[in-house]
Design a protein that fits this description.
The structure is a homodimer of 564-residue chains.
Chain A lengths: L4 E5 L4 H12 L4 E5 L12 H5 L20 H8 L2 E3 L2 E7 L4 E6 L5 E5 L2 E4 L3 E3 L12 E2 L4 H13 L4 E5 L3 H12 L3 E5 L11 H13 L3 E3 L4 E7 L2 E7 L4 E3 L2 E4 L3 E3 L2 H5 L23 E3 L6 E2 L6 E2 L4 H17 L12 E5 L2 E7 L2 H6 L4 E9 L9 E9 L5 E8 L3 H13 L4 H5 L15 H13 L5 E2 L1 H9 L5 E4 L3 H6 L7 E2 L2 H4 L14 E4 L4 H12 L5 E4 L13
Parallel strand pairs in A: 1-2, 1-7, 2-3, 7-18, 9-16, 10-11, 10-16, 11-12, 26-30, 27-28, 27-29, 29-30
Antiparallel strand pairs in A: 4-5, 5-6, 8-17, 13-14, 14-15, 19-20, 21-22, 22-25, 23-24, 24-25
Helix pairs in contact in A: 1-8
Chain lengths: 564, 564
């Protein structure tokens, strides 16, 4: 029997998983977990929900499903792992196979020997040197104490105005938390959209929803300066010169991997600044593994390295590390397809694989389809889903899928993630046998329908045009014939008001004289979700029109203002 | 340009899809849809929800998402399809390529010529020759008029007691509908469990839940006779001699394919009595296609033919038919993995692929894992999921996945269906990158965890035993040492009461003297969901015990009575 000494640095997600499983796989091993923070196994993805008051019990973030707090005593008794909190590792001596630590409370130092070392050092919120960033009131959200502080501010009721700097996942989650707790919230994003894993026109739907909740979103804008008085934040000056008064600003512009310890020990660092590991999660030192937010991993579609700091991946990486330490290096971590999801007020939004913009940036020639349609039958209380599927134009392989809406986004993204991972084509997905009953989905699942739309496009049955392109061309003064084929009552309720012509689909075959008589004139059809728009295209093409396009996603997918 | 005559027989699910898409793909085709019933495009899977009063608008079952009823006028105007209702096809003349029809209202007959014929003749509820089956009050649920009648009975408030004959999908959905509308419901099932796509111990959890709603479930029992007075049902006599009084009985013991028309025309019929088709959905006559509940299709795992009459598959099959008619026979329908889901009061229950019993019947050597655990973090309002994964013992390929519970079953089954279709192994699923955020799932998704449990079992890290086997052996008088490693407060709340010993996991390492000192004695560990049970096994094996098993699913998966 071995009596391996396994030392794990970092006690958030990957660290505890690697430590506990290492012990389960090798009962004779001595497993030590070193953690700088005072807490262990924090459910950090839950911080926004704690801040927003979804629950009040702070310990819920630290407890097992049966309510036992995962502290040092728990790790010793239940896991057989010797965990030491408030213990910062300051150096790795690879030659002597020891790590140097400091007790952050007492300042005492110590040294711990290892046979195998696991780096789970996590990541740090990115902070740019904006003037005033050190003012009291400028915060980030990374550690438990950050969550504590933000919750304290929420509970105090003293903060009226808050600014979120960064419209990514964490920014949006914190935006919701603060807004729902009663604060007046502004979100400032440098880029032209929120949630960069979505394409622009899909992200705009999220932005519209966020705005409908009273949040002001500033895109294409940045923070020029944090303004303050007596060391306290009083407002934010934006790049466009405007000033937003606030007592709280949360900077959430991404994270950078904590790789300093690794770098100082001479371990290889990757192109994104993270610890470089091979498929077995080994660093450049065969006795040192790494997992979690500090590492770079493989992007499964391209095979290239990427940086994907997500809690779920951290756990899987750590499982691979434990398996390889216990059983020899046989277990590979396959990497990420960039699956992600978030709640945004009454919407869910997420993606797996690549957006159109990202796929193009990776060099793919892509074809896409947008589908706005209900998640289940109307009589079961259907809610809208708006999706976009991105496929390789040459092979039909699905490269990515985005989905937002008040409907059942969760299932859609999960099945799409499995499809992307498996390299499925649109035709494979178009014939998927998924669970169906009216309380759960449509007879033809939304994801399958999206693949069918793309199939129709690839087969030349349907020619699509994106709402963004339609808007751009209208704004540029072009005058294509826009044909709304919905019913008059639908038009009454809501319309684009861009000079469109209303001819309901059921009347179209008998109203062809109302269309441009030049058969080469451009006609853009749409309806509520654009199924009828597609049928209109079929009808018009059958009657000789040659330049008909369907505006994908219909009026439900239109991210701009509608008239109601 | 062709001017093909396409005739489609049947107007429920597959028929309208085949007809409408045929017209979209070939605008010059003349498409005729012949339907015996007075309605078209009925959302028949929605009948139970209409009966149960989830909604009152009968037309919702017949309407498009925007509320337009899909009648003959709709098909003509919006789809360009000539639909004729109340039109029964009585014969196919393959030589002259015509079908003979009768108007079921007037008795008039006619003949329609075809170039391509599509059979979507559906299925008929199975009725066995039980004495009294023709009494007034003995009904089935297949057509719209059946739904109308059952809804009328519900609305009348006159039926106090109802018996459902058959505990399959439709039986359970109707059971819920009638029970929720206030009737006292008994379910009678010949076999030893409800929902045969589940394994026995998983189905028992559903049965327990159904019983908790006041429904009496009789398994291993059948109907010997329907009892009546003056031609009206008064009760049901069961095989065990007991009598259940009732004014309504709904017979839901499965359906048989409507293949008579095809058989009489000399088309090949399959081993299940359905119309035989090839991968292109062609019958033995190259000009006749078939789709929907009347056909036999391929089971994707075995490659053998099966009978899978589901509305979602009917739509996909019909799409393939339309594609092949329009574009030549190039499109294959890959078949089914038997994905299904249903709502059962506060639970969802479903499966994809094979259950353990079915996989064994198909000749597979299988290994299984049961996982009872929450769908998301406790602080987000977690609900329970109980799942069972079945994999091929030799290759680790996932053959099936079942999931029941009040939690998010829908996503679990959808991702599992994708995995089964793709032939994924437990190791592939164990490293899946699925969308994660606390409102939607656990950091390690329930499905992934189930794969991890199976990985642990296959690696020899964990030895499981099913709760059914534990119960059977205890009932037979065996006395294994049963070790509950939960906390005292959990034990206080709920316990098996089978003579178990309580030693909380955290105390186990210091309480080894309380265990059988014979290291070969059989010890069966468990906890709430059996994660701690597994950890206890690791601890005991590390201390020399050689015969330790984990009762999979823990007390939450225990389908028998618990003491509270």
């Amino acid at each position: 029997m071995s009596s391996k000494k396994i030392v794990v640095i970092g006690g958030s997600a990957a660290g505890p998983k690697a430590a506990a499983r290492s012990k389960r796989l090798d009962a004779d091993a001595e497993v030590v977990l070193l953690q700088k923070a005072p807490e262990l196994s924090m459910a950090s993805c839950g911080y926004p929900y704690y801040i927003g008051g979804n629950f009040d019990e702070r310990n819920a973030l630290l407890a097992t499903p049966t309510g036992v707090v995962r502290d040092e005593g728990f790790f010793a008794a239940a896991k057989g792992v010797s965990a030491r909190v408030n213990t910062e590792v300051t150096a790795i001596d690879r030659h002597n196979k020891t790590v140097s630590c400091t007790d952050v409370l007492t300042g005492e130092s110590c040294s711990v020997a290892y046979d195998k070392l696991v780096l789970c050092t996590g990541a740090t919120p990115r902070r740019t040197p904006i003037p005033g960033i050190d003012l009291e009131g400028v915060r980030s959200l990374s550690e438990m104490r950050d969550a504590d502080k933000l919750r304290e501010l929420v509970d105090s009721g003293k903060v009226k105005d808050a600014v979120i700097v960064g419209g990514g996942l964490i920014g949006i989650e914190v935006c919701e938390a603060l807004s729902e707790s009663g604060m007046n919230v502004n979100v400032v994003e440098m880029l032209s959209q929120l949630l960069m894993f979505l394409d622009w026109e899909i992200a705009k739907l999220v932005e519209k929803h966020v705005a409908s909740k009273g949040v002001t979103v500033h895109t294409d804008n940045g923070v020029a300066e944090f303004l303050g008085e007596n060391g306290k934040l009083t407002g934010v000056k934006l790049n466009d010169g405007s000033v937003v008064p606030c007592e709280l600003a949360v900077v959430a512009i991404g994270v950078t991997p904590n790789a300093k310890l690794a770098a100082e020990a001479g371990l290889e660092i990757g192109g994104f600044g993270g610890v470089a590991v091979d498929d077995f999660m080994r660093t450049s030192d065969p006795d040192i593994y790494a997992a979690g937010d500090c590492v770079e991993i493989t992007q499964r579609i391209t095979g290239k390295k990427t940086y994907a700091p997500y809690g779920d991946l951290a756990n899987l990486e750590a499982r691979v590390v434990a398996d390889n330490i216990a059983r020899g290096d046989k277990h590979k971590f396959p990497g990420t397809v960039n699956s992600g999801i978030c709640k945004v007020f009454d919407l869910s939004a997420g993606a797996t694989g690549f957006s159109e913009q990202r796929a193009k940036a990776e060099g793919y020639d892509v074809i896409t389809a947008t589908n706005a349609s209900p998640d289940k039958p109307g009589f079961m209380g259907a809610k809208l889903l708006v999706s976009k599927m991105v496929a390789d134009a040459a092979t039909g392989r699905i490269l990515g899928f985005q989905c937002v809406g008040p409907g059942e986004v969760n299932r859609q993204l999960a099945e799409a993630a499995m499809a992307v991972m498996n390299g499925n084509t649109i035709w494979e997905v178009g014939m998927a046998d998924l669970p169906y009953a009216p309380p759960f989905s449509l007879a033809i699942d939304h994801f399958i329908t999206t693949a069918h739309i793309l199939d129709n496009k690839m087969a030349g049955q349907m020619t699509g045009i994106s709402n963004a392109e339609v808007k751009e061309r209208l704004d540029a003064g072009e005058k294509p014939f826009i044909l709304d084929v919905r019913a008059p009552n639908e038009f009454e309720e809501m319309r684009l008001n861009v000079g469109e012509n209303l001819i309901p689909l059921g009347k179209l075959r008998n109203a062809l004289d109302q269309l441009p008589q030049n058969k080469d004139a451009e006609i853009i059809t749409f309806c509520k979700i654009s199924m009828r728009g597609y049928e209109a295209q079929r009808v018009l093409e059958a009657n000789g029109w040659t330049n008909v396009k369907v505006m994908e996603g219909g009026i439900m997918g239109w991210p701009f203002k509608v008239e109601m």
